């Protein structure tokens, strides 16, 4: 890996035609932020044409209309570009199992793969920000009073929010004298029960 620090990752978000690539759903937008040592060094955003019309529900939910998608490049073109963008970085998403499913399905179509591993900012937030009313991205952003432009459910805006939330959690660990938390530690936190988190952090 280029860097196993939790501060150097790709934070990504997909907008899709539905919930399951196994049911034929496809990605319609990808947004991603490249963090290097905790600083945004690059971003990636692209609409992609799934090859069929999206439902009215999805168009309303995402703000992405069929007219917007009609001139967009194909999923295959965009995913080929995106595979170059992520390189061998580790990956972060809010509710990562969803984004991982779509990334895996889209990459499989073009014969691409990625070397990095995923971490889920939602699972980590459930353990590190236990007093938040919910662990939806918008609620966490408001709970932590993280600056945002009010746009949700568009891929780049959501990945930018997730990147800010991720860095807040990393910095809060540093405030507990955990120097430069590793990506592996963030993954471990996501898999540790809430009650066991204080002991985990105290023993580092």
UniProtKB/TrEMBL annotation:
Example of a GO MF term: exonuclease activity
Domain Exonuclease per the UniProt entry, residue ranges: 8-175
Key words of the record: Exonuclease, Hydrolase, Nuclease
Enzyme Commission code: 2.7.7.7
Keyword Hydrolase attached: yes
InterPro entries: DnaQ, Ribonucl_H, RNaseH-like_sf, RNaseH_sf
EC category name: transferase
Catalytic activity: DNA(n) + a 2'-deoxyribonucleoside 5'-triphosphate = DNA(n+1) + diphosphate
CDD domains membership: DEDDh
Xref: Pfam families: RNase_T (PF00929)
NCBIfam families the record matches: dnaq (TIGR00573)
Protein name, UniProt field: DNA-directed DNA polymerase
Native source species: Vibrio algarum
Higher taxonomy: Bacteria, Pseudomonadati, Pseudomonadota, Gammaproteobacteria, Vibrionales
């Amino acid at each position: 890996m280029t860097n196993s620090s939790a501060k150097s990752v790709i934070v990504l978000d997909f907008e899709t035609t539905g919930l399951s690539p196994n049911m034929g759903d496809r990605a319609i937008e990808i947004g991603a932020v490249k963090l290097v040592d905790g600083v945004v060094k690059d971003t990636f955003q692209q609409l992609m044409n799934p090859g069929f019309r999206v439902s009215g529900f999805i168009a309303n939910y995402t703000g992405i209309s069929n007219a917007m998608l009609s001139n967009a490049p194909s999923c295959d073109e965009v995913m080929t570009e995106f595979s170059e963008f992520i390189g061998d970085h580790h990956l972060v998403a809010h509710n990562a199992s969803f984004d991982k499913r779509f990334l895996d399905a889209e990459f499989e179509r073009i014969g691409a793969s990625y070397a990095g591993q995923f971490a889920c900012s939602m699972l980590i937030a459930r353990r590190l920000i236990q007093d938040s009313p919910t662990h939806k991205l918008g609620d966490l952003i408001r709970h932590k009073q993280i600056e945002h432009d009010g746009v949700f459910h568009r891929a780049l805006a959501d990945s930018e929010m997730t990147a800010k939330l991720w860095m807040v959690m990393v910095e809060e660990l540093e405030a507990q004298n955990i120097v430069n938390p590793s990506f592996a530690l963030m993954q471990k936190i996501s898999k540790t029960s809430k009650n066991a988190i204080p002991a985990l952090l105290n023993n580092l």
